[in-house]
Amino acid sequence: MQQLITRVHSANTLLCVGLDPIGTDAEVAVRLRQVVAETHAYAAAFKPNLAFFLSRADGVALLKSTIQGIPADIPVILDGKFGDIANTADHYARFAYDVVGAHGVTVNPYMGDDAIRPFARPGKLVFSLAKTSNKPAHNLQDQALAHGGHLSDLAAHVARQLDEELPEAIIGLVLGATEPTAMARVRAACPRQWFLVPGIGAQGGDLAATLKAGLRKDGSGVLINASRSIWQAADAGKAAQELRDQINEFRVVKS
């Protein structure tokens, strides 16, 4: 966590560069190195998506080498959306932290808090799904609870409780940029936690509305993820710099 905070301040950035590699294996190996080299100056974190690596014959080796090629002062969040019972989750945690060397993960909390706990190692970053950026026809996250609120609010509440219970780790939330109203509601209930925010760009999320809803009073607490818009850019570094600067235009320290 201290690594992330230091990086946010030293590079003046809340940008998370997503790595969702598409193309042939040979193309991807080259492009991954290129994107990391061109964007690391503007990145608060990198977020490789596990599925885009596992779909390749040598995907785990490629993932490991990609993480090893990222500057040591930049946290790496492995986007696996892990979610299983505790003994299985422990093996996923070993894979993420001990095998490939990630500093954090995304997890799916819908099997309960024991699906999260194995990832909450000292110093690690855990981002638990609350309100995601996709819009399925039948969204479990939007189901109303008998005592008020939605299932996504309960997921956020569970993560906040674990964050308070397990201070040696940082347990934040994944909140999509496509619904800033929901994000504002969760921020009010979770004033301290970090949010990992997909959905800006290809999915249509509004950057200004997202930051207004999600930023903490200190002007941080949000990581804006961009994947396709950077990967597909002719100049990945320029795309990352422009988005970093756009984010900073809306960063406001609140009294």
- Report Rg: 17 Å
Number of helices: 10
Question: Roughly how much helix do the residues carry, as a percent range?
Answer: 40-55%
Low-confidence segments = none
Strand arrangement across the biggest beta sheet = 2-1-8-7-6-5-4-3
Order of SSEs, N→C? HEHEHHEHEEHEHEHEHH
Q: State mean pLDDT (0 to 100 scale).
A: 91
Report strand %: 15-25%
Q: Based on CA inertia axes, which overall geometry fits?
A: globular
Structural class of the helices, strands and pairings?
Answer: alpha/beta
Number of E-type strands: 8
Main sheet overview = 8 strands, parallel
Distance between the termini: 24 Å
Description:
There is one protein chain. The mean pLDDT is 91. This protein has an 8-stranded parallel β-sheet. The protein is of the alpha/beta class and 255 residues long. The chain is built from 10 helices and 8 strands. 46% of the residues are buried. Helix 2 crosses helix 10 (236-249) and helix 7 runs parallel beside helix 8.
Write a compact overview of the structure shown:
This protein has helices at residues 2-10, 25-39, 50-54, 59-68, 86-99, 151-165, 180-189, 207-214, 228-231, 236-249, and strands spanning 15-19, 45-48, 77-82, 104-107, 125-131, 170-175, 195-197, 222-226.
